[in-house]
């Protein structure tokens, strides 16, 4: 995808400089690069609703051990919500302060053939609250109204937690199978992403020139800066203040898991290393670390939630879409939920970003602008995710017995 970004953006800049406004360039964009980019985006949109619903329902259903493990599960859930909220708010504050997407408004009129979902600002607070509960979930799917779908998926997960029947477990297995198939399809779509990214970036840079690349560099800087603050400031404070462990000892012990996360860009692939690190290097009780890390591989994705919030607000600034405070609060809440439901695989956050972009009225092609740099950011945010899982295990393990016998 990075190659696609470089080739597409480079050729687009050259075309803008030499052929800007020429009918040949306009025809090439209209008949070649724009349709190919739209097809790529439609493939992503096709997977958004089923991926988000199945992932979120499975993520919440995976917390069913809360009843069995009592305080361990509740402390894990509390840590996940609080620290994810801190991460998202940090990202929102930084993107609103630095405003990396400001100064280059992209016209929505020629953006994409895929209509964005109506922005939440068009409804009053009471109407929005009522409409959170869908009267017809299939109608909400057809309309692309994602907030009611998220509520339905969350209730579906809660229902799976509360229903202790063989049929319910089989249904959960069906959802997991569906999620596996959808993620495999997502991986296939990502394989053609270099071509899609090249077409999308060519289309925009051919129209806008170098300016878009400057905005993209600012966006990368904001994401990396926010991830660094969460990793090097927030986590050490939590470790020292709540976990009772020296941050230096923690990072020295966790380095193998962090390096594995950076290399694989997958929380799920890093899980075996994280379990080994937690027990051998950090000396955490196995019954605590196994539960927290297994759940955290899907449910405690601080870096992903932070990244999603920054990306959506950056795209809103880029397309000159003004967001009210209420809309930004909704973005925060959905990002926290998205952190629970995002799959722990490379590019697993893309469906959530596409969903959020549609919710706030940003066109679908905006996602393609950031895809070229997503691999590096994915590696960095996965490192933060895995570190957050291990921090959660340290915090939850404090005061717990060495075994689950007492």
Description:
With about 400 residues, the chain is mainly alpha-helical. It is built from 18 helices and no strands. It has helices at about 1-20, 25-60, 65-70, 70-100, 125-130, 135-145, 145-160, 165-190, 195-210, 210-245, 245-265, 265-280, 285-300, 300-320, 325-340, 350-360, 365-370, 375-395. Helix 1 packs parallel to helix 9, helix 4 (about 70-100) runs parallel beside helix 14 and helix 13 (about 285-300) packs antiparallel against helix 18. The longest helix is centred in the first third of the chain and has 39 residues, at about 25-60. It is globular, with a radius of gyration of 21 Å.
Alpha carbon gap, first and last residue: 51 Å
Q: Please state the structural category.
A: mainly alpha
Average pLDDT reading? 77
According to DSSP, the number of beta strands is: 0
The H/E string reads: HHHHHHHHHHHHHHHHHH
Strand content: under 5%
- Unreliable stretches (pLDDT < 50, length at least 5) are 108-123
Rg measurement, Å: 21 Å
Helices, by number, come to 18
Shape: globular
The biggest beta sheet reads: none
Share of helix, binned:
over 70%
Gist?
The protein is 78% helix and 0% strand.
Defining key terms:
mainly alpha; 18 helices; 0% strand; 406 residues
